[in-house]
């Protein structure tokens, strides 16, 4: 079974530029999560999708971050404009359902904003 | 509010010793408690989980215990090996917000040969 795929693995941009990350979840998984992991901290949930609908985006900085999950499969997370404090690893995870179901993570995208 | 507290933040043990990491959660409706291992440059990997209908689960050298009354759960690693060195995260779902998975702050485990 293929795992969660993310791209790119690494990205370096200047502040105020824009960037996009892509995630392909495990086939059949209805729930998709985007997490932000700052160095030395636990993952922080940015947004949770159930199929193509948003379940929770309370921690998403909506003035600069946006995410979509077209057709309930792949998802993209965009930052525009980026700030220095956005430097982090962005992790995508998927599960068959939310809550009490196993969530599987991709390798993440390491973003550096300079 | 939603919160998962994890202790200790760092743990150093000698190869062959046991390691214990503890977490507490605040949502009494939480019923699923996974543990993840994260190696450098990789995403978190699920290593064991427990549901609220049992108090303990074991998988070879790894075990997890759950005390629902006290709202805490622990990861136990016995006969530690250098390859167990990594950052470990606990997590719990918060059902008043769609079951979103909240993570602890992480424990950096170092196993010295």
What does it look like?
The complex is a heterodimer of chains A (114) and B (113). Chain A is an all-beta fold. Chain A has strands at 5-7, 10-13, 19-24, 31-37, 44-50, 53-56, 65-68, 75-79, 88-95, 104-105, 109-113. In chain A, strands 2, 4, 5, 6, 9, 10 and 11 form a seven-stranded mixed beta sheet that branches. Chain A is globular and about 35 Å long. With 113 residues, chain B is mainly beta. Chain B has no helices and eleven strands. Chain A binds chain B through residues 4, 33, 35, 40-45, 48, 50, 55-56, 58, 91, 93, 98-108, and chain B through 4, 6, 31-32, 34, 36, 41-46, 49, 51, 89, 93, 95, 97-106.
Order of helices and strands of chain B: EEEEEEEEEEE
Euclidean distance between termini CA atoms of chain A: 37 Å
- Provide the succession of SSEs of chain A: EEEEEEEEEEE
Termini separation of chain B comes to 41 Å
- Please summarize the sheet with the most strands of chain A: 7 strands, mixed
* Helix share, percent of chain A: under 10%
Question: Biggest interface and its residues per chain?
Answer: A-B, 27 and 27 residues
Poorly predicted residue ranges of chain B: none
Uncertain runs of chain A are none
β-strand amount of chain B: over 45%
Number of strands of chain B: 11
Q: Quaternary state, please?
A: heterodimer
What's the helix and strand layout?
The complex is a heterodimer of chains A (114) and B (113).
Chain A lengths: L4 E3 L2 E4 L5 E6 L6 E7 L6 E7 L2 E4 L8 E4 L6 E5 L8 E8 L8 E2 L3 E5 L1
Parallel strand pairs in A: 2-11
Antiparallel strand pairs in A: 1-3, 3-8, 4-5, 4-9, 5-6, 7-8, 9-10, 9-11
Chain B lengths: L3 E4 L2 E5 L4 E7 L6 E7 L6 E7 L4 E4 L2 E6 L4 E6 L8 E9 L5 E4 L3 E6 L1
């Amino acid at each position: 079974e293929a795992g969660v795929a993310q791209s790119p693995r690494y990205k370096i941009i200047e502040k105020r530029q824009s960037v996009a990350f892509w995630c392909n979840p495990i086939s059949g998984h209805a729930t998709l999560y985007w997490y932000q992991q700052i160095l030395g901290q636990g993952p922080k949930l940015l947004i949770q999708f159930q199929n193509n609908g948003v379940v929770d985006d309370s921690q998403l900085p909506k003035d600069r971050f946006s995410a979509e999950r077209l057709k309930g499969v792949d998802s993209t997370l965009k930052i525009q404009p980026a700030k220095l404090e956005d430097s982090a690893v962005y992790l995508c995870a998927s599960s068959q359902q939310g809550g009490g179901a196993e969530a599987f993570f991709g390798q993440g995208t390491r973003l550096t904003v300079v | 509010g939603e919160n998962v507290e994890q202790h200790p933040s760092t743990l150093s043990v000698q190869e062959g010793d046991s390691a214990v990491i503890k977490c507490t959660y605040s949502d009494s409706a939480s019923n699923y408690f996974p543990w993840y291992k994260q190696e450098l440059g990789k995403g978190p990997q699920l290593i064991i989980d427990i549901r609220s209908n049992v108090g303990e689960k074991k998988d070879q050298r790894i075990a997890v215990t759950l005390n629902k009354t006290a709202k805490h759960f622990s990861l136990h690693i016995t006969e530690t090996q250098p390859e167990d060195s990594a950052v470990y995260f606990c997590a719990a779902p918060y059902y008043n917000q769609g079951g979103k998975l909240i993570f602890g702050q992480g424990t950096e485990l170092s196993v010295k040969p």
